[in-house]
Amino acid sequence: MVRGKKAQRVKETLPRRTTGRTMRDSDYAALAQFRFQIRSFLAFSEAAAAQQGLTPRQHQALLGIKGFVPAGPATVGDVARFLLIRHHSAVELIDRLAKLRLVSRVADPEDARRVHLKLTKTGEQKLRALSQKNLEELRRAASPALSRLLKSFRNPSSSNS
Asked: How far apart, in whole angstroms, are the C-alpha atoms of residue 48 and residue 138?
């Protein structure tokens, strides 16, 4: 049977199975608990953002602008990459944050086509308050539970039982 090019491409992009290891019930339970902990933290974080008058995406954008780029100011492209969204969606999000006076745009002195993003004083204050709440929640609830869960995941190279 002759396969088309599309079928060959799909097959090539599928992940290869590296071990013959079977999943245990405890593996499924650990993964389910892990996802529950992540969703619980995200729900907490979303509620905290709402208390600050922000959407979850706006909060994430502020965090990305402040903390995603290790050296130098963030750009719209950085925000898009951090949030896993398209560039034009990031532009719209930055427009809304600028309207709220949480972000300012600064022209790149070396390349006029690039725009650097900077948190305003109000943006810094909101992000600081949210980040403190999120870190407290991680220390209080999520961190111990996640630590236990991560320890429960077996090393894939260990026994296949």
From this structure: 13
Phi, psi of 110 (to 5 degrees): -95, -20
User: How far is residue 85 CA from its own chain's centroid?
Assistant: 11
- Please spell the DSSP secondary structure of 120-156, one letter per residue: -HHHHHHHHHHHHHHHHHIIIIIHHHHHHHHHHSPPT
Tell me the backbone φ, ψ of residue 115, rounded to 5 degrees. Answer: -125, 130
Whether residue 118 contacts residue 73, with contact meaning beta carbons closer than 8 Å, is answered with: yes
E strand or H helix that includes residue 95: helix 87-99
Q: How many CA atoms lie within 13 A of 136 on its CB side?
A: 8
Q: Whole-prediction pTM value?
A: 0.77
Q: Is residue 95 within 8 Å of residue 85, measured between CB atoms?
A: no
pLDDT digits over 43-81, tens only? 999 999 999 999 999 999 999 999 998 777 999 999 999
List pLDDT tens digits, range 81-123. Answer: 999 999 999 999 999 999 999 999 999 999 888 899 999 999 9
